[in-house]
UniProtKB/TrEMBL annotation:
PROSITE patterns attached to this UniProt entry: GNAT
Domain N-acetyltransferase: 3-142
Organism encoding this protein: Roseateles saccharophilus (Pseudomonas saccharophila)
InterPro entries: Acyl_CoA_acyltransferase, GNAT_dom
Protein name according to UniProt: GNAT superfamily N-acetyltransferase
């Protein structure tokens, strides 16, 4: 099935929070950092519907992502897929969509998350390791 992108509205916040928790829970519990209140605050602090898109497959919202435009680059936040939608090429589809804009991309991934191997497979390079996150950067090959 071909994924589609759909706009995000303010009214989507609670559903997106639930999806975020569903997608991150396993990794956060493994690190002893699962806290729904922190998840809510973090999403709320970066909730910009104009930068966000739902990922829709067969009429169902199965994920979302945020692309923050910055000077000369893009910052990818919140690339979350429901666990049952992971491993089907949908995250790669999103990355290809963002990479097509032709700008460098930065992002952070939670330590010990499977997302780290995903980003490395897709050409991202580690630029900094922090206590809880790993910072990555991707640049198009000239």
């Amino acid at each position: 099935m071909t994924p589609m992108l759909a706009p995000v509205a303010d009214a989507d916040f609670e559903a997106m929070l639930a999806l975020r928790i569903e997608a991150l829970r396993e990794s956060l519990e493994r690190l002893g950092r699962f806290n729904p209140d922190v998840a809510r605050a973090r999403l709320k602090s970066q909730f910009r519907p104009d930068w966000m898109r739902h990922l829709v497959v067969a009429g169902e919202r199965i994920g979302y992502f945020t692309v923050e435009p910055r000077e000369g680059e893009l910052r990818l936040h919140h690339l979350y897929l429901r666990p049952q939608a992971q491993g089907q090429g949908l995250g790669a589809w999103v990355l290809d969509h963002v990479k097509a804009q032709g700008k460098p991309i930065t992002l952070a991934a939670l330590r010990e998350s499977r997302a780290n191997a995903f980003y490395l497979r897709h050409g991202f390079k580690v630029v900094e390791e922090q206590d809880f996150d790993i910072e990555y950067r991707w640049e198009a090959v000239a």
